[in-house]
Every structure is written in structure tokens, then in C-alpha cells.
Design goal:
It contains 18 helices and 30 strands. The chain has about 750 residues and is α+β, with helices and mostly antiparallel strands. The chain has four domains: about 190 residues, no CATH class; about 160 residues, no CATH class; about 250 residues, Distorted Sandwich (Beta-galactosidase, Chain A, domain 5); about 100 residues. Strands 22, 23, 24, 25, 26, 27, 28, 29 and 30 form a nine-stranded antiparallel β-sheet that branches. It has an eight-stranded antiparallel β-sheet with strand order 9-10-11-12-21-16-15-14, with no helix packed on it. A five-stranded antiparallel β-sheet has the order 3-4-5-6-7, covered by helices on one side. A hairpin with a 4-residue loop joins strand 4 and strand 5. Helix 8 packs parallel to helix 10. The longest helix is centred in the N-terminal third of the chain and has 22 residues. It is elongated. The protein starts with a helix and ends with a strand.
Length: about 750
């Protein structure tokens, strides 16, 4: 099975042919010929015609929408105008680099003086992510409209000139520009300045040239998200721009190709064959556009696509949580399909709004957290008020995505969330080009504060010859195990060695993940690497009620050394306490306490460049120092004890047992033991797979929690007789007597 999958992925990932040179025709004659009109003014009438397909709204509806936007969200509008003013007169940012303003004579060819001479910076302005917000400003102020018109004419002069090939570097970049132009045409339709109409005519000329470029090249892109964008564009062109394509595109056939490609590149749980949240977002945004555009035009969408989109959105929303914290797992660059207003980068606010509007109306609206919430307004309008949610009473919950390899644990009272990025399961197809070494990685947030975070991407360029002499290998650092929140054995990348800018498309490493305990106060999950160069590393996440969380790592046989790392968010303060650290805000508010289960000391590194350590890339092309915790130890088990707040639970240690492991915590008022796989306690005899025992300082048993259990004997108390094997069991004691017994099935009897 796995060999067939590899051959299938390899065949789909082959580059079929290089793009032929393209000379765009931006002339008004070409525009008029495509539309079959004699006057240029008739081109706008054609676009505004009532029988044209709606691009989310028609021109008349857009005027009402814009009025609502100004009335309901004046601050959003003000911030947008301020941003446009700065970009046109002061500076325009290409990812993490600040450059000259977007004005006539802008250096569209770009410069190679970028991190790693990365061409992404040269391509960034040609995606036109700036256009929708500039169109919004131009619709109310002729000064902005005049500037935009000059800017677009300047761009056309460059794109049609001898160095203009960067404007047509890839189908994906042209598709993104085409969608931005479509948004610009719609937003400008509500405008009053006379120059706004001139801007719309120029945009139609650009649209015509871009559609003609795409129409002969769709289907020839690399078989990852680039090919997915091709298939989406085939449907999109067939519905909205058939006049420019120069040939008839059957929308039914184009939609079938789009559906087949989306289902091939996504998984049954809503995940993606590309192990990157950003590239999963690309697929989400295309599927959102298809679903919303189909609905507003009364075009049918298959149940299969609806179901897949719902699962895809659910994954993004679960990962981001109620406070919409963006986790850029895998490669990430701030380009998307909905660059509306100030939105750039990951957009969990869009995904939550669409999931709620289309599929889950009881989902909380949530507090606005980022510019993606504003972008959702342009897609959907003002969200309806959500009904009050019923309290489920569940203290601990877990959302799991077994194919993609993601588990999200949440505690209600502490608002603590832990994410286990286990990794794709066995026989799951993977396009690993954009994968980071994050298998078995963990991430943590409390409320709206991220604590343990992905390091980010920084650059896609790995060739040392493209970097200044002496620069660290930044590409390798950010995508490799040195920046990952996982257990690294013998300094080996779990995906295998990396050569070039991107990984090989198909790789053998997969992860076996299982729920060891579904106890409502004792959640235990285990993930183990399969076929890893480092061997069968196992990581267990054990969440004990709302008290603390264990991350227990078991290295493979034959390993000589293990390194455990945790990358913290920029701006956090770390205070050492022996084998533990307290993590808090810059102003001294304690957030959580972390202790290593290994006996080696914790090293705190921040902004080290020699052997890079302690860096985050909050934006592509921008890196900032951030605390990183590192524990290097021998091949003995290790891991972390994590507790919300600053009150320490006491000293924790892990010891090997004949058939498993025992993790012990010695607090001021209690002694806890968590047995994994096998209990070797002299006072407790059981066949439970997982057992947690809390004792008072004098040794008196206070509480027992067990998973997958059929018998239990406690010295001095008696036996628990189970009517049938239980998935989980809890016993609470008072003075040596059983006070409370709860179980997954029928209540047990105590003798």
C-alpha cells in the first residue's frame, strides 16, 4: 500500500513543463475585442450588468455593503485609510522587509539584497495584496484614486517590458493577483470619485491579460497547492471570465476537476497532504470561495465538497482556539486568497466566521482578535448573534484529527490549551516539501497568551552561497529539529536529511497515535514515530484534571543522547528555579511553570547566533530573539511537567518500571504517581493500563484514577469488583473508606 502511495505522489508531483515566455497585452483594444464592445465605457457596463455572476455581491449590493461598513466599523475604515496613506507616501513592507512607498517609479523588479536572495520578495508586490485596501480608499477619496491609477499604469509598463517576467513567474501568483483585481473592481464600484471609474477600466485590462496567461497554462503547475489553485482557477474562469479565456471552458467539467483535486490533496479528517497549516489555509480559502460564490449565485455544491470544507474549517478553528491564536506549523509565508483591508497572513478569524455562518450556527462569535475578522466581514457581513451555549460540564476536552496528526487538549477552568502535533498516520499520503521537523511537537497557550509556539519559517532559501559569509543556516534551523518543540534523538531530523530549499515530496516517516485513556480527569495520548532515522521515539501526553500536564518521552533503544526543546513566544520572561522555570509576561505576571523530567539542567537561550538557538520568525523574513528551553541528556526517558500558574506541584521525577514507567510528583500536601503500561505499586494491584494514585504525605490513599481496567485491589481498603472491564474508573477516599466511585459504565462495587 505505502509503495503505491509513493508512486502515485511522485507521478503527481512531477513538473510537466516550464512556463513559456508571456508578453501581456494590456491595450484597451484587446479588452474591447474580448468583450465584443466598441466603446470603453461599455466595458464597465458589461461588468456591472445585473445578469453577470455575482462576485460575492453585485455592484448595487456592494454600495449598500460599503455604507454598512462605514456605519458599523468606522475604526476599521480609519485604520485602513491610514495604512494606505503610509504605503503610498512612506514605505511598503514586503513580508518582514520595509521598502520604498508604492508610488510611480516603484522598483517592481525588486532586489536580490534579501535574506538568502529570496525571489519571494521580488514577487510579493506582483500578487497585488495591497490592491483591495487601496481600492477601498480610492472609492471615497479622489486623491487615493489618482495615486492608484498612476500606480497601476506604472505596473503595466513594467510587466509589459523586458524585465516583466517576474510579474508572470507562476500561475499561483497570477491567480492571487486576479482575485485581488476582482475585489478591487467590486470595491471601487461603490466609489464616487471620477478617477475610480478609470481605475476599474485599468483593472479590467489587467484581468484580461492575466486570464489569457492562465487559460493556456492551467493544469501544468507543480502537483501540490499550485495545482490545486490551477483547478480552482479553471472553475473560477469558467464562471466569471470566459470572455477573456479565448475558448469555451465547461464549468461542469472544471468543477469536477476542482473537486477531484481538493479531495486528493486533503484528508478524511479535514487535514492536508501538505504538513503545513498555511498551505492547508490555501486549500481552505479556495474551498470557501467556491462555496460562497456558488451559494450567492445559486449554483449547486456537492455534499462531498460541503462535508470536506466543514472538516477543513473545523481543523483550523480547533487549532486556533477561542482566542484565534495563529499557529504557523510547517512553512508559512504571508500570502493568501483574501487580502481584504489589513488582513495578511494566517486567518483563523475567517475560518471561524465561515464555519459558523455555513455549518455551525451555535459556534460562539468570539471577540475580534485580528484583521482576519475584518476580512470576514467582506465575505459574510455582520455575524448574527450566537445563542447562549449550554455548559457541558466537561473540564477536559480533546479535538483529534488522526489523518493530519493533530490533537488539541483544552481545560475549561484554566483556559489552558495544549496542542500535540503528532504527525500523519501510517499509510497517509504526504507532500512533505514544506514540512518542518515538528513530529511529536507540542504547543501551549493560556487564554489569549501564546506560550510554547512554532518558531516560524523566516526564509525558503537554504543555499549558503546566497547568504552573507558567516551567516547561520537559517533555513535549516527554522525547519529543523533545533527549533522544534519535540524530543530530538542523536540530533537527527525525524523526516530524514534535507537537501535544497524543500524536502523530498514523499518521505517514509509516519506516526502511530492512540488514545490511552479517555478518563474525564485523566487524558492520556501516545504518539510514536514509525520509520524515523532516529528510531521509534514515543511521546505521551498525560493531562491530570486541571492540575498539571506530563509530557513523557521514551527514546528508542540504541540512542546515545536526547535533546528536549521548547520554543517560547517572544517577549516572555523566564525565571529559573533549579530543575524548573517559571514563564511569565514582561511585567512579571506568572503564566505557567515548566520542569524537566530529566535530571540534566535546563538551559535558557535567547537570540544565540553561533549555533542558532532562541529565535522566532513572527513574519516571513523577520526574526526576533525569544526564550528557548533546552535539556540535553543521555538516552534515559525525559519530558516536561507543565502547570498553570506559579504554585509549584513539587519535584517531579520519572523512573523505569519492569513493563513501563512511573512519573512521581512530590508536593507539599500530597504524593502523586502516574503509572504507564504497568503498575508496580506494593499497595495497589491492578491490571489497569494507566493508573494515577494520589496519597497524603503520610501515605494515605486519597484518590485513584484508572483507564482500561478490569480489577483493582488496594491494601487496607479492599477490592473493587467490576461488572465488566471499564474504559475508566475513579475512586475517592475519606479516612480509608471509599467516598465516591464513578466509572465509564455501570458503577463498580467495593468489598
Amino acid at each position: 500500500m505505502i509503495h503505491r502511495l509513493r508512486r502515485w505522489l511522485w507521478a503527481r508531483s512531477a513538473q510537466r513543463k516550464a512556463l513559456a515566455p508571456y508578453t501581456p497585452d494590456f491595450s484597451t483594444v484587446a479588452l474591447q475585442d474580448s468583450l465584443g464592445v466598441a466603446e470603453t465605457t461599455a466595458c464597465l457596463s458589461w461588468f456591472d450588468a445585473a445578469d453577470r455572476p455575482k462576485f460575492f455581491r453585485n455592484s448595487t449590493e456592494q454600495q449598500e455593503w460599503f455604507a454598512s461598513y462605514q456605519r458599523l466599523h468606522p475604526m476599521w475604515f480609519r485604520h485602513c485609510l491610514d495604512r494606505v496613506e503610509r504605503e503610498q507616501t512612506e514605505a511598503y513592507s514586503r513580508y518582514g522587509l520595509v521598502g520604498p512607498p508604492l508610488a510611480p517609479a516603484y522598483p517592481w523588479a525588486g532586489s536580490e539584497e534579501t535574506p538568502g536572495r529570496d525571489i519571494q520578495y521580488r514577487k510579493k508586490p506582483h500578487r497585488f495584496s495591497f490592491l483591495p485596501r487601496m481600492a477601498l480608499a480610492a472609492s471615497v477619496d479622489d486623491r487615493f484614486a489618482t495615486h492608484l491609477l498612476s500606480l497601476l499604469e506604472d505596473w503595466m509598463a513594467f510587466a509589459g517590458g523586458p524585465r516583466g517576467e517576474v510579474a508572470y513567474d507562476s500561475n499561483l501568483a497570477v491567480i492571487q493577483r486576479l482575485l485581488a483585481c476582482h475585489w478591487g473592481l467590486l470595491l471601487l464600484s461603490a466609489g464616487t470619485p471620477t478617477t475610480a471609474a478609470d481605475c476599474r477600466l485599468v483593472l479590467l485590462r489587467i484581468v484580461g491579460a492575466d486570464v489569457r496567461f492562465l487559460s493556456g497554462r492551467l493544469g501544468e503547475s507543480f502537483a501540490n497547492n499550485h495545482l490545486l489553485a490551477d483547478r480552482f482557477a479553471g472553475w473560477y474562469l469558467s464562471r466569471f471570465w470566459p470572455e477573456f479565456a479565448g475558448e469555451t471552458i465547461d464549468p461542469v467539467a472544471a468543477e469536477a476537476e476542482w473537486e477531484a483535486e481538493l479531495l486528493a490533496q486533503t484528508l478524511g479528517d479535514g487535514g492536508s497532504v501538505e504538513p503545513s497549516v498555511h498551505y492547508h489555509e490555501f486549500a481552505c480559502d479556495m474551498a470557501i470561495a467556491h462555496a460562497l460564490l456558488s451559494r450567492c449565485n445559486a449554483w449547486a455544491v456537492s455534499r462531498v465538497l460541503e462535508d470536506r470544507l466543514r472538516k477543513m474549517l473545523r481543523l483550523q478553528v480547533s487549532l486556533a482556539g477561542p482566542h484565534l491564536i495563529a499557529y504557523p506549523l510547517g512553512d508559512c509565508i504571508e500570502d493568501n486568497f483574501f487580502p481584504l483591508a489589513l488582513h495578511e497572513g494566517l486567518g483563523p478569524g475567517i475560518h471561524r466566521a465561515v464555519l459558523r455562518a455555513l455549518y455551525e450556527p451555535t459556534l460562539p462569535v468570539g471577540a475580534p482578535m485580528g484583521h482576519d475578522v475584518e476580512a470576514a466581514f467582506w465575505l459574510l457581513g455582520e455575524p448574527a448573534e450566537a445563542p447562549a451555549n449550554e455548559d457541558t460540564g466537561e473540564e477536559l476536552t480533546v479535538d483529534t484529527f488522526p489523518d493530519f496528526g493533530l490533537q488539541v487538549f483544552s481545560a475549561r477552568s484554566s483556559q489552558m490549551r495544549l496542542i500535540l502535533r503528532s504527525g500523519p498516520g501510517p499509510d497517509t499520503p504526504v507532500l512533505a516539501g514544506h514540512a518542518h521537523a515538528d513530529l511529536l511537537g507540542i504547543y501551549l497557550d493560556i487564554g489569549n497568551q501564546p506560550l510554547i509556539v512554532p518558531a516560524g519559517s523566516y526564509s525558503y532559501r537554504a543555499d549558503a552561497r546566497r547568504w552573507p559569509q558567516g551567516e547561520p543556516a537559517w533555513r535549516q534551523y527554522f525547519r529543523g529539529p533545533a527549533a522544534a518543540n519535540t524530543a530530538c534523538v542523536d540530533d537527527l531530523d525525524p523526516w530524514g536529511p534535507v537537501r535544497g530549499d524543500f524536502r523530498a515530496q514523499t518521505l517514509p516517516t509516519r506516526v502511530a497515535t492512540s488514545c490511552r485513556s479517555s478518563h474525564p480527569a485523566l487524558m492520556v495520548w501516545q504518539a510514536s514515530l514509525c520509520d524515523s532515522p532516529a528510531g521509534a521515539v514515543s511521546r505521551v501526553v498525560a493531562w491530570i484534571d486541571d492540575d498539571y500536564v506530563f509530557i513523557y518521552d521514551r527514546p528508542p533503544e540504541g540512542a546515545t543522547a536526547t535533546t528536549n526543546r521548547l520554543q517560547l513566544a517572544p517577549g516572555l520572561r523566564v525565571t529559573a528555579h533549579g530543575q524548573a522555570v517559571t514563564v511569565g509576561t514582561a511585567d512579571g505576571v506568572a503564566l505557567c511553570r515548566l520542569q524537566s523530567l530529566a535530571t540534566a539542567p535546563i538551559a535558557v537561550q535567547e537570540g544565540d547566533e553561533g549555533e542558532p538557538a532562541g529565535w522566532c520568525a513572527p513574519q516571513y523574513g523577520k526574526r526576533v530573539p525569544a526564550p528557548q528551553l533546552t535539556v540535553r541528556h543521555d538516552a534515559a526517558p525525559g519530558g516536561w511537567l507543565i502547570q498553570h500558574g506559579s504554585t509549584p506541584p513539587g519535584h517531579a521525577e520519572v523512573s523505569a518500571a519492569p513493563m513501563g514507567a512511573c512519573i512521581a510528583v512530590a508536593g507539599e500536601r500530597y504524593r502523586d504517581q502516574l503509572w504507564l503500561d504497568h503498575c508496580d505499586d506494593s499497595e495497589v494491584a491492578t491490571d489497569a493500563e494507566i493508573l494515577w494514585v494520589r496519597r497524603a504525605v503520610d501515605g494515605t490513599v486519597i484518590e485513584i484514577r484508572a483507564a482500561r481496567i478490569s480489577r483493582l485491589d488496594v491494601v487496607g481498603i479492599g477490592s473493587v469488583v467490576l461488572k465488566a472491564p471499564e474504559l475508566w474508573l475513579t475512586l475517592q477516599f475519606d479516612g480509608g473508606n471509599v467516598k465516591v466511585v464513578t466509572a465509564s459504565g455501570a458503577l463498580a462495587q467495593v468489598h
